[in-house]
């Protein structure tokens, strides 16, 4: 994975996490005056009606800022919509919402993958041959192996399943130079 792709994936996870905190606070009427992706100097910012949204130089984290932590805030310290003045359950919801958002996002991705790509089947016995090399002197082609064949056994020895079958076939072929091997093939 390239560095930029890794940073992009990390940024998405951070945004989802911080959005969990932010939305949990907002849905309860708790003030949140900053939403930031990254740390360090501000690269870009937008001042909304109640919240400053920012992207910062170091994309290795993020934060949701509450007026409780801001000494320059003009909200009175005893205001009921400050995080510290809310009941402990409200605060626990805001604090845990980041992790919950990440879990929901992970399940969403798994569901999307299962719906679009499918769920892997249990490994079938043998080795599936997806294609045959187009060279004119392909040993597999000369032996009559065709694309989508499944090699089940070599010289009467079952290959097994999954990666074990692939490794067993490879090892048998490598250990048998200039020797004819009898293949048991399943063909549709």
Automatic annotation (TrEMBL):
Membrane topology of this protein: Multi-pass membrane protein
GO CC annotation terms, alphabetical: membrane
Q: Which cofactor does it need?
A: Zn(2+)
Q: Which GO terms describe its biological process?
A: proteolysis
Listed Gene3D superfamilies? 2.30.42.10
Q: Name one Pfam family in it.
A: Peptidase_M50
Chain ranges of the Peptidase M50 domain = 6-163
InterPro entries in the record: PDZ_sf (IPR036034), Pept_M50_Zn (IPR004387), Peptidase_M50 (IPR008915)
The entry's localization annotation reads: Membrane
Q: Which GO terms describe its molecular function?
A: metalloendopeptidase activity
Q: Which UniProt keywords apply?
A: Hydrolase, Membrane, Metalloprotease, Protease, Transmembrane, Transmembrane helix, Zinc
Q: Which parts pass through the membrane?
A: 92-111
Family note? Belongs to the peptidase M50B family.
Q: What is this protein called?
A: RIP metalloprotease RseP
Per the UniProt entry, what species is this protein from, by scientific name?
Symploca sp. SIO1C4
